[in-house]
User: Fold these one by one.
Assistant:
Number 1:
Amino acid sequence: MNLTRIYSMRVPLENIINTKDEQLILENIRRCARLVGVKLFRISLWHKSLTQKDIKEFIKRNEHLLFEINTRITKQVEYAWFVIDTENEDGSRSRYRWKGDVLSGLVEYVNLVKALPSFKEEKRYGKRGNK
C-alpha cells in the first residue's frame, strides 16, 4: 500500500491579510511548499470574520503565489497536519500545533518537517526510497 503524505497547514487569514508582513508570510509559505514538494503541500487560510471584498482584494494581490501552491480559503475549520493557532482558540484536530505568531509558526513547520525521519530518507534516497 502506497500512502502519500500530505503536509497540510492551516493559518488564520486575519493574521496575514493587510499586515505589514503579508508578503513575507506568503513567501515563507511558498518556501514551505517547495521544501516538502508542491504536490505534497496544502494550505488552508482560515478566517472567521473577513468580508468577501477583503478576500477578493487579497486574492487579486497574491493570485500568482496562491495559484502556485495548493491554497484553500475557507471559514470552515478542518483537519490539518500542522496548525498555526495565533489566539489559542482554534479547537480543531491536527497532528501538530503551534501557538504563537504566524512567522514563528512557519519556522517551526520547516524545522518539524526537516526533523521527520521519513523526510530525511526521501531527501537522502530520493522520492521512491531507492538507494
Number 2:
Amino acid sequence: MRNAHTTISLCALTMVLGLLLLPTTVLAQIGPNSCVGEDACTDNTGDVKNNSCNGFAACKDNTGDVGNRSCDGAFAPCLRNTGDVKNNSCNGQTSCAQNTGDVKNNSCNGETSCASNAGLVGNDSCNGHFPCDFNAGHVGNSSCNGRFACPSNTGPIGNNSCNAECACVGNTGPIGNDERNTPGTCPPPPEP
C-alpha cells in the first residue's frame, strides 16, 4: 500500500511541475489611444504606453517596451522592433523598423530613422531623413541629427556630434563630444 501512495504522490507532483513549466501567454499592457491602424500591434508582446504604435503595421511583431507618443507613422514604425523605445521617439514611416537597440527620449524621428539600428541611441538623437539607419554604434545625446547624418555608423559617437547632412556617413572610429558638426560628403544615389 505504501508503494501505491508513493507512486500516486510522484505522479501528482510530476503533473503539477509539468503545468508550471508550460509556456504561458504574455499579455502586453496597451495604453489608451494606442495600436490604432490595420495590423497595428499584431503579435506585439511589449508594453505600449499612451498614444503609441499607430499606423499601418505599427509595432507589428514588436517585443520591446514602447513609451508615450512613440512608434507612430503612416507605414510600419517599430515593425519587428526588439529594443525599448522611450517617449516621443521612432515616429515616421518605417522608423525603428527591425531596430534592436534601445532608443531614448525624442530620438529616431523621421522617415526611416533608425531602421535596422543595433546601437544604443541617446536622447534627442538620430532625427531627420535616414539619419541612423543600419547604425551599430552607440550614439550619445543630441547627436546624428540631419539628413543622412550617421547611416551605417559602427563607431561610438559622443554628445552633440555629427549634426549635419552626411556628417558621419559610414563612420567606423570613435567620435568625441562636439565634433564633426559640418556637412560631409553624401554617397551618390543608386543607379536606376
Number 3:
Amino acid sequence: MQIDTGGQFTQMDSACEDATVPVGGNPVIFDPTSTYEVSDLVVVHPGTQILVTAYNLAENARIVVHGASVGQRPVSNGTACCRTDGPNPTLLNRKSADVLFRSPMRLGGQVWELSPTNDRLLISLPGNYVFVLNDSAYFGDLQVEYQRFPLLPMPDVYYAGAGVPTMPV
C-alpha cells in the first residue's frame, strides 16, 4: 500500500514533518471541508505528546488511530503534486513520505479511537500516525485537531491504551 501523505522529509531530521494546515492555532486532522477518510501523517516526536480533540462527532462516528510505517521517495523540484484535492494543490520540493503499512493501534487490548463519548485522546508514544474516519458521511461539521506539548504528567484516562483509570475517583 503506497499512500501519499503529503508529509516532507528534511535532511536534518529523520522524522517526517507534519503536513497539516493550522486553523485557529492548532494543526487540523479533519475539518468540514475534508473529503478523504484517511488523514495526513501526524508525527509524535520523542519527548512530546499530542492531545487530539474531536468536535461534533456524530453518534456512530469513530476515528481510529493507525500506526504507520513510513518510507520516502524523491520528488522533483516543485513539479509533483502530493495533494490535488481543492483549488490549490500542494507542491513538494524535497522528499515525500509514503505510508508503506498501517494498522490500528492497540495497547492493553484497547483500540485507540475517538468517538462521541471519547472525544479527546493523548498520544505520548513516539511514532508516525494516521487517523481513519469510519465513514465519509460524517464529514460536514466535523473538526479534529491537536495540540503538541512537552511530556507532562496528565490523568491516566487521557492516554491512548490506558484502559481503566488508575487514579482514585
Number 4:
Amino acid sequence: MGVGRVQHDIPASRNAAAERTEPLVDAQPDRRRTGLDRYAFRRVLAAVCVGLALAGFIAAYVETGFHFEAEGGDGWNYLAAGERLNAGHPLYALSPGDRNVVIVPPYWTVPLLAPPPVAVIWRPLALLGEPSMLVWGIANMVATIATVLYLCWTNGLFGIAATAFLSAPLGLLALSGNVNGFVLAALVAAWSLRSNPVVVGGTLAFAIAMKLTPVLFLLWLIGHGRRPAALATIAGLVVVLAISVVGAGFTAHLDWLQSVPGSRPSPQSLMSLTGLSSSAIFLLSAAAVAVVTRLGDERITFTLAAILTALASPAFYFQALGLLLAAVAPWRDDLFAGRRLRGGTPTTPQAT
C-alpha cells in the first residue's frame, strides 16, 4: 500500500512542480530585436553617407557651377568637332573659320583627344549651335545622377557608401559635360542587364567607342562564359566603326591614330605617375583582369575591370574617379528592399 501511494503521488508532485515553474522566456524576440537594431544602425549609417554625398556634390557645384557652355570645356570641344565635320574640315586640325579650341602641348596637341565616334554623335547636335552644349550637359548630368540614384536604391548601403566616398569626383563628372557620365551609365547597365546579350553588347560597344579602356570588360564576358554578349559587343563595335567611318571619313581615323603618340598622358594618370607607357599599363590591366577571372566569381572580375577602366586611361583627371562607382554595381545590400524574414527579422546584406 505504501508503495502504491508513492506511485500515485509521483504524478501529482510533478504537476505541482510544473505549476510552480515559471514559463520559459522565448529568445526569439531578443533575436528579432537584435536584427532590428542592426537594421536601424545601417539606416543611420546610410543617412550619414547621404549627408556626405550631398556635401561632396555641393562642393563640386560651388567649384564649377553650371557652365556647360563655357569656352574650353568638354561641350565646347565636342561642338567644335561636330562643326568641323559638318563643314568638311579635318577633324584633328584647325582650319580657318573653325571654332577656337585651346591646345595645351604636350598634353593636348590636337583639337580633339577623343576618337572620331564622339564627333560623329555631335554632327546633328552641332546644327543646334551653342545651345547644343546645354542640351548635352543637362543630358550628361541627368545620366550621372540617375545612375547614382539607381545604385543607391538597388545596392543599398554599398551604393550609398560608394557615392559618399566618390561624391566630389561624381559631382564634377555630372557638371563637366564630359562623355564619362554616359559611360558610367552604360557600364552599370551592362551589369544590371547582363542576362540580355544584345543590351550588354550595345552598351559596352558605346562605352568602348567613347573611352577605349572599357574594352577590358570583354575579358569579363569571355572569362565567365558570356560569349553571346561578347560577340554582341564585337558586332556592336563593327557597327559603330562603320557609322564612324561614314560620318567622319577614313582619314579622320588615321589622323586620330597618328595623334595618340603625340599627346603626353595627363599628369594625374598612371602613366605619368609610374613612368610606364600607355601600352604597358593597358597590358598589365588586361593581365590582371584575366587572372581574376580564374577565381570564378564574375562580380570580382567586373569590379576590377571597372576600376582599371577608370584608372588606366591616359586622359585621366580627378573627375574620372567618378567612373569607379560602376565597380559597386555587382554588390548589393537590401537596405531599402523592405523584405523581412519569417518572424520579422530584416534580411541580411547580400552580394548579387
